[in-house]
């Protein structure tokens, strides 16, 4: 800013109030002269070369910190310096040739700074004084910069009748931000639509601070290409040869979306019905792993407390938002696979909470999922990019309204000829749980299970017993030496 002062220029303090220019029709980040003259008032005001160099050095420092994963050590002053630098370089004319033309500034912002802004603003939202700088991290200022470089906002409004139309177009564009650089196939989604009311309780206020990054648009998983869809289906067909109908239905869902050019990954709700131990839950987990989706299993069997789904309201000890938001926060993604395990065994909800079935209806219906109200944050949340799959042993106790939200698929029991494949999959799962390479654990001999009709749970117990016996026999210290 010292370079600006030396050049006799300044930015008014209200320029950094992101809602002010749009609401009152004021110009966005307009340079002013410290001492206005009479002979040069019509000359365009541009960023001096020295100021541009300082601002670009600030942005370059942030790029390096982001690449080396050092942004989490930055305080609010560091973050604000970078965001102001991005806004000024993208929005103001410069005396340097490379950032003088509007198209050059647009390329600079969309090619580098859009994604960098998201990363820096996320760090800013986690700082102790984040509430003082909400416009910088909640997407307001970022959207105004994106709108400005697009050439659709803050034009010379010389005709009064044009002003309302410009504001109408601006509002429609501001409703959804542009995706960050490097995510051409995947968009973004603002999971929590603020503002989040403040809390008087210290613990509640700290929890709110932790969840504030979800006010920033989060990445949405991209739909795999047709070739990638085939690869996922082939892998699942090899792991679950007895579940050909489930794999086939999944293929119909994904191939149609992929071939029609759907960009964002989100599958319809599916309920897999089958006997205990037929591999229903494992199928959903492996699907999430193949699609690289964050995975959240919710064990609903016998639960009478709806807090597992809704979280806890403010004021209660240990209160927190719905675990769906925790999944998004931990993985920094608006997408995910949620397993509603044993949904047919949900117990009667006690008098202190809403019926679990009614809560599930809210998650499974797109209209309500897009406007779901979280009781702890006291804000509207958007869960439309989450995929909800469920498992059940029977449909007898399922409410008709809840059942109608799902595509119901039957999972057969594994056949005797499927035992070898199932044992290999279970052994690989154990290796992943133990964080070991897949080839480290030995496979049980076929003689232990050949010809038997064992479900997945019984086979897992058999594999665990085999691994225990094998390790005792072969990995004892006296045998290793």
UniProtKB/TrEMBL annotation:
AAA+ ATPase domain boundaries: 266-417
Alphabetized SUPFAM superfamilies for the sequence: P-loop containing nucleoside triphosphate hydrolases
Source organism: Hydrogenophaga palleronii
UniProt feature coiled coil, ranges: none
Family matches, as InterPro entries: AAA+_ATPase, ATPase_AAA_core, Lon_Prtase, P-loop_NTPase
Protein's recorded name: AAA+ ATPase domain-containing protein
SMART domains: AAA
Phylogenetic lineage: Bacteria, Pseudomonadati, Pseudomonadota, Betaproteobacteria, Burkholderiales
């Amino acid at each position: 800013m010292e370079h600006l002062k030396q050049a006799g220029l300044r930015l008014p303090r209200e320029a950094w109030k992101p809602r002010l220019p749009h609401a009152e029709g004021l110009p966005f980040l307009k340079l002013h002269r410290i001492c206005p003259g009479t002979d040069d008032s019509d000359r365009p005001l541009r960023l001096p070369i020295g100021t541009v160099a300082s601002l670009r050095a600030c942005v370059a420092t942030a790029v390096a910190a982001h690449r080396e994963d050092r942004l989490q050590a930055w305080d609010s002053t560091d973050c604000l310096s970078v965001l102001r630098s991005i806004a000024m370089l993208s929005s103001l004319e410069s005396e340097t040739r490379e950032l003088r033309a509007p198209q050059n500034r647009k390329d600079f912002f969309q090619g580098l700074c859009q994604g960098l802004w998201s990363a820096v603003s996320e760090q800013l939202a986690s700082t102790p004084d984040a509430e003082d700088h909400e416009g910088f991290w909640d997407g307001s200022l970022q959207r105004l910069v994106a709108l400005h470089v697009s050439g659709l906002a803050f034009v010379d409004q010389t005709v009064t009748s044009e002003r309302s139309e410009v504001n109408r177009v601006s509002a429609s564009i501001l409703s959804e931000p542009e995706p960050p650089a490097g995510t051409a196939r995947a968009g973004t989604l603002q999971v929590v639509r603020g503002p989040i009311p403040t809390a008087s309780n210290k613990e509640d206020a700290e929890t709110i601070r932790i969840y504030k990054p979800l006010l920033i648009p989060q990445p949405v998983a991209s739909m795999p290409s047709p070739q990638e869809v085939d690869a996922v289906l082939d892998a699942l067909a090899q792991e679950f040869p007895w579940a050909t109908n489930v794999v086939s239905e999944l293929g119909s869902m994904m191939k149609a979306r992929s071939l029609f050019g759907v960009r964002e990954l989100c599958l319809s709700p599916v309920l897999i019905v089958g006997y205990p131990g037929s591999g229903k839950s494992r199928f959903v987990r492996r699907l999430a792993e193949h699609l690289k989706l964050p995975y959240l299993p919710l064990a609903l069997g016998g639960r009478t407390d709806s807090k597992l789904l809704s979280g806890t309201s403010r004021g209660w000890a240990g209160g927190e938002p719905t675990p769906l938001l925790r999944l998004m926060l931990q993985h920094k993604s608006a997408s995910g696979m949620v397993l509603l395990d044993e949904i047919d065994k949900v117990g009667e909800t006690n008098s202190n909470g809403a019926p679990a079935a009614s809560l599930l209806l809210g998650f499974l219906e797109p209209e309500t999922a897009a406007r779901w109200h979280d009781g702890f944050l006291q804000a509207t949340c958007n869960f439309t990019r989450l995929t909800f799959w469920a498992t059940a042993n029977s449909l007898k106790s399922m409410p008709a309204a809840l059942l109608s939200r799902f595509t119901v698929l039957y999972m057969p029991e594994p056949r005797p000829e499927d035992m070898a494949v199932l044992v290999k999959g279970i052994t690989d799962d154990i290796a992943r749980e133990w964080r070991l390479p897949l080839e480290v654990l030995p496979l049980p001999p076929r003689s232990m299970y050949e010809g038997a009709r064992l479900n997945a749970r019984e086979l897992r117990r058999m594999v665990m017993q085999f691994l225990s016996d094998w390790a005792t026999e072969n990995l004892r210290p006296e045998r290793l030496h």
